[in-house]
Amino acid sequence: MADEAQETVAPPFTAFNFRVEIDVEGVSQQVCHAAFSECEGLEMSVAPKTIREGGDNTRQIHLNGPVSYGQVTLRRGMTANFDLWDWFDRVQSQGHLGLRADAEIVMLAADGRTEQVRFILERCLPVKLRAPSLNATDGLVAVEEMQLAYERLSIRRPDGGGAGAAGGA
């Protein structure tokens, strides 16, 4: 009976193993399938609207306000092509100012293969792309820092479930 009461406890999520996947229509099907050493800015916040009920000065009522999102910063990345640079260049060119991409940040388990969760960033716009310091011993195309502004953030669980709406992460 004690065995039935025991639940299987999943191992904790680890944040040191992840990959970045970016698809940009018209540039490349997979602009980025790269390894970065750091990713930050997966965030969303709600600005609450505070109202007071007439005559009741002892409490406040909080309603959901608009959702705002951060900017993802990817640092020290390695990629095998120039597609990220091409995307940034294309966004600046006449007629492509609205060129957006969808990106996914995939958190992996400690084994480096098992997917734990996907952060889905919709309609990304590159806002910063910085080259690394030049070093003759490095052989790959490197990206020191890249920032993406995004319009919506959600998650997809590995079992296929997930929050389809903003605010689900």
Write a brief structural summary.
The protein has 169 residues and is mainly beta.
Task: Summarize the structure in words.
- By secondary structure, the chain is mostly beta strands.
- Helices cover 8% and strands 48% of the residues.
- It has 2 helices and 12 strands.
- A hairpin with a 6-residue loop joins strand 8 and strand 9 (115-130).
- The protein is globular.
- The two termini are 36 Å apart.
Globally, the shape reads globular
Strand line-up across the major sheet: 1-2-7-10-9-8
Number of helical segments with 4 or more residues: 2
CA-CA gap between termini? 36 Å
Quaternary assembly: single chain
Helix content: under 10%
Number of strands: 12
Low-confidence stretches: 165-169
Percent of residues in beta strands: over 45%
Outline the biggest β-sheet. Answer: 6 strands, antiparallel, barrel
Alpha carbon gyration radius = 21 Å
Q: Output mean pLDDT.
A: 79
Order of helix and strand elements from N to C terminus = HEEEEEEEHEEEEE
Structural class, from helix and strand content? mainly beta
